[in-house]
Amino acid sequence: MTFQKTNNVTTLLELSFVSQNIRMICENEDKAKEMLGAPVALTLKSRLADMRAAMFVSELLAGSPGEIVHNNSPAYKLDLTTQERLVFCCVHETIPLLTNGNTDWHQVSRVKLVNIGSKIC
To answer: What is the rounded CA–CA span in Å between residue 63 and residue 85?
Structure first.
């Protein structure tokens, strides 16, 4: 794996959270188990570890990753189960875009987690 260097500092995928509740679920395993159930909480823990180890969204491989629309905006999802998923969006000051206008997830290194739960969102 290669690392993005900025002033000799390695930069990994930066995570932020849309709400205190989502932050708590992601940072507190007991709360995650209480809110999501143990199997989903365990998968969430694994997906978050993958995200923290990646430099760009495009490096995420587990959980059937893919671009979706969430609240009428481009977003990205990782499946936690067949019914549950983790959804996040790009929070770069200037969103990297492809020539067709879609988000260039190969360049996205800052994301905000916006939903954990049902695939119907």
So the answer is: 8
CATH of the domain at 52: 3.30.2310.20
Percent of the chain with pLDDT over 90: 79
pTM score, two decimals? Answer: 0.86
Domain that holds residue 44: 15-118
Alpha carbons 74 and 76: distance in angstroms, whole number: 7
10 assigned to some structural domain:
no
| Number of domains forming the structure of the chain | 1
Report the C-alpha gap between 114 and 86 in whole angstroms: 8
| CB-based contact 86:64 (threshold 8 Å) | no
3-class SS of residue 2: coil
- Dihedral sign for Cα 98, 104, 106, 110, please: positive
- Residue 31: phi, psi to the nearest 5? -65, -40
